[in-house]
Amino acid sequence: MAQVSGIAEERSTTPLSSRKSVTLRITRYNPEYDNEKTFMEFNVPYEKWTTVLEAILEVKKHFDHSVAVRYSCRQATCGSCGMVINGKPRLACFTKISELDSDVVTVEPMNNFPIIRDLTVRFERLFNSHHKIKPFLIHEDSEISSNEKEFLQSPEELEQYIQFSNCIKCGLCNSACPTMATDSSFVGPQALAQAYRYVADSRDKGKDSRLKIIDESHGIWRCHFAGSCSQVCPKGVDPAMGIQFLRGYLLGFKS
């Protein structure tokens, strides 16, 4: 375990006496060369608004350029910077160090995803499962006329699925799911929640085909309703609730 202390103090205008610092523990692992994960520790100063992602980028800039981390928008929109922070799947750009209430911040790659290197993981399984449930509106050709431009919905119809359309495919729900860890073929809470998003959409006519896709041994019935997926979603989506609603359709309680 390596430890590095002190980021150049002159880069901050905050008086040294009032500044706080945190020990940032970053997972280092390259599956091509390493047999197990290790951690490197860095002493990083922070303000009350400093995010975990900003702290990691400080380390990359000043101490170790080789730290592998995926990020993009920095505003909890793209879903790129998902990782496990102090034991819980979170977005690094959306997690403030001051809110963790800890002198040590440990960052690790998301669980249930193959590791590329350090904090970055592969998303093929998530995207393949997402595509499997046909994440688009399905219509019969006869419904669309040459002068028709939109399919109107009432506020009540929109309310049925609107929260599920907020999914940013960050993968945090799949990382938190215990079934994902034991069944490599499980479709996962992200895909199931998106299946409900379209099944519940009054404009869509693909309900039967989607229900058939998820009604199989590695589909919806493998969910044990731990609820951990809903607890970690940064956008307020409730995959566990969507899965229960889908079961209602399959068992004939909903039409």
Report on this model:
With 255 residues, the protein is of the alpha/beta class. The protein has two domains: 2-121, Ubiquitin-like (UB roll), CATH 3.10.20.30; 124-250, Orthogonal Bundle (Fumarate Reductase Iron-sulfur Protein, Chain B, domain 2). 29% of the residues lie in helices and 15% in strands. The chain has ten helices and eight strands. The protein has helices spanning 52-62, 97-100, 124-132, 155-159, 172-176, 178-182, 189-199, 207-214, 228-232, 239-250, and strands at residues 2-4, 20-28, 38-46, 82-85, 88-91, 104-108, 115-117, 120-121. It has a six-stranded mixed sheet with strand order 1-3-2-6-4-5. A two-stranded antiparallel sheet has the order 7-8. Strand 4 and strand 5 (88-91) form a beta hairpin. The longest helix has 12 residues, at 239-250. Residues 3-14 have low confidence and may be disordered.
Mean of residue pLDDT values? 91
Shape: elongated
Order of helices and strands: EEEHEEHEEEHHHHHHHH
Strand content: 15-25%
> CATH superfamily assignment of the largest domain?
Alpha-helical ferredoxin
- Class derived from helix and strand content: alpha/beta
Q: Largest sheet at a glance?
A: 6 strands, mixed
Distance, first to last CA: 57 Å
Q: Which residue ranges are poorly predicted, with pLDDT under 50 across at least 5 consecutive positions?
A: 3-14
Beta strands, count:
8
Number of helices: 10
CATH topology of the largest domain: Fumarate Reductase Iron-sulfur Protein, Chain B, domain 2
CATH classification class of the largest domain:
Mainly Alpha
Number of domains: 2
**Arrangement of strands in the largest sheet:** 1-3-2-6-4-5
Helical residues, percent = 25-40%
Q: From the 3D coordinates, which CATH architecture of the largest domain would you assign?
A: Orthogonal Bundle
